[in-house]
Amino acid sequence: MIQPASVRWKPRSIVTSWGRSSMLVLVFVFALLGADALKPPVGAAEPLVFGVNNPVHGYDTRPTRDRFSRFKADLDAGRITLEAGDELTLLRSVLGALEIPVSSQMLVTSATSFQKTIISPRRPRALYFNDDTYVGFVPGGQIEVVSIDPALGPIFSIFGRPTAAGKAPRIQRIASCLTCHATPQMDEIPQLVIESVVPSITGGGEKAFRRDLSGHGVPLDQRFGGWLVTGAPWFSQHWGNILIERTRSGAKQRSMEPGELFDLGRYPIPTSELLPQLLHEHQVGFTNRAVTATYRTRVLLQENAGRIEAIKPDLESLARGLVRYLLFADEVPLPPGGVTGAEAFKTDFLAKRRVASNGHSLRDLELSTRLMRYRCSYMIDSPAFAGLPQPLRQIVDLELERALDPATTTQEYAYLPAEEKQVIRTILQEMRPPSAQEDPR
Fold first, then answer.
1. Rounded-to-integer distance, Cα 169 and Cα 246, Å
2. C-alpha angle with apex 219: 217 to 220, nearest 5 degrees?
3. What is the distance between the alpha carbons of residues 149 and 37, in angstroms, rounded to a whole number?
């Protein structure tokens, strides 16, 4: 787990955390001893800055190479156009251009977005996704996009309907999203956030869970707070479809049916299925881990003048974490009875299926007790994985080779049968995941 980030030492941070009397004492000491009294001890190591404030990453300066940046360039150049009649027409046109299936729709009732002032159980926010791009839509609001750049991680943008027919929308990259998506607890490394926040009728959070956790290892009974879940009536051990009402006798928790408090006709489809949400959780967990590993590796290389041997233990630790996640080491079991339904989404998800000579694919679903039939994530074919700095990528490849060796008997990967390992090895050997050849500066 990522530890809270250390913040570079600043006298101002000390002053703002003390009371008035302590401030006077500080001023008196400063006057007696001079500015040197407030400097870190001589020889003390200054904490590393891993996140976006370290210029080695170039978060605000590097050219972006994510899917949405390419889309915007084509849009600005007139190479593509959008249908911009009503807001649903625009949304469908955007999703189509970004190759995001409408069937991935998930509805969120908690006010946990850049547009939180207009989100509530009476007007949910809809989310859509593919492997590297996430789109948010609020009826009467703007369209939000998070797209994953191989080197930089999540890039945040927002836009509304064009002001005139035939004009392209005015797209803005939004830095303020980092307030929630690159917090000190995240080492200020940009990440995706899946909160579990049980809302009031106004959308404000009444209960919150797993703020700093993401991925397929999060217990199901901590998920879906503030999310609507449809098509899974047998599965109730979660916080979805719930709001908290304030009454004279106190707070009262109650369930809500999708469409009970709002018009489902304001959304492209009337569903918020369980399967898209489970896969969304899995791939967000991988993206966060991969982006974090990329940022940490880049800083470690910078601080050690590129001497890989000096940071090899750190790289091996990052690689083990990534490989264990790729191979679903800590995946929680699916609810009893497994997951069914979401046929439209299954079709869209499997449309990207790349088949090896053995007839199998990393996108093959299992869905009775676990998500995938072959436990190696399809996210190994994503920009987040392609952007791993080469020194880290090489160690990840070695760890994958060790983990998938049928002769390996270590307890760490004992949950994978030899036959399943061999199937995965064949798929990876024939469809080696690409590398972005990221400059590890």
1. 40
2. 120
3. 43
Structure tokens at 130: 């593919």
Q: Residue 136 and residue 152: Cα distance in Å, rounded?
A: 20
The pLDDT tens digits for 204-235 are 888 888 878 999 999 999 999 999 999 998 88
For residue 336, give the H/E element and its range.
none
Two tokens at 438?
């990221």
Amino acid symbol at 68: F
Longest Cα separation, the chain:
77
**What count of other Cβ atoms lies within 10 Å of the Cβ of residue 302?**
16
Query: Comparing 28-32, 294-298, 311-315, 367-371, which segment has the lowest mean pLDDT?
Result: 28-32
Q: Quick one: CA dihedral 406, 407, 411, 417, positive or negative?
A: positive
* Helix (H), strand (E) at residue 209: strand 205-209
Q: Based on the number of CB atoms within 10 Å of its own CB, is 352 exposed (0-12), middle (13-18) or buried (19 or more)? A: middle
Under a CB-based contact definition with an 8 Å cutoff, are residues 24 and 314 in contact?
no
Cα dist. 363→359, 405, 425 in Å?
12, 21, 15
Q: Are 385 and 379 contacting, i.e. CB atoms less than 8 angstroms apart?
A: yes
pLDDT, tens digit, 9 for 90 and up, residues 69-95: 999 999 999 999 998 789 999 999 999
Residue 97 zone, left/alpha/beta (φ > 0; ψ -120 to 50; rest)? alpha
Contact 232, 241 (CB under 8 A): no
pTM for the predicted model, two decimal places: 0.87
**Would you mind telling me the total number of residues written for the chain in this entry?**
441
- HSE-up (13 A, CA, CB side) for residue 436: 24
| Amino acid residing at 426 | T
